[in-house]
Amino acid sequence: MRIQVKRTGGFGGIERHAEVDTTARPDAHEWHALAERAVADGRGEPPIGVPDGFSYQITVDGRTVYCADPRLTDDQRQLITRVLKEGS
């Protein structure tokens, strides 16, 4: 599974992008479950965010959803954090 996260917005307006390929990971099943829950709660189009807040585009195996601060689910927040931390 390929998981991509793109973060835009924020005070500085700096875009950040990261990707994780779970294919060879020993914890792939955890990533898959988390990604499926995060995508299930996403929107088909970018939501209206708050001033200086972050907006996110999450793509899992070609399916893209959108979400924004401060209305992230716990699963979305956890997936975004993990991908931006561990992704390349």
TrEMBL record:
It comes from the Bacteria. Residues 14-27 have a biased composition (Basic and acidic residues). Residues 1-27 are annotated as: Disordered. InterPro entries: Emfourin. It holds the Pfam family Emfourin. This is Metalloprotease. It comes from Streptomyces spectabilis.
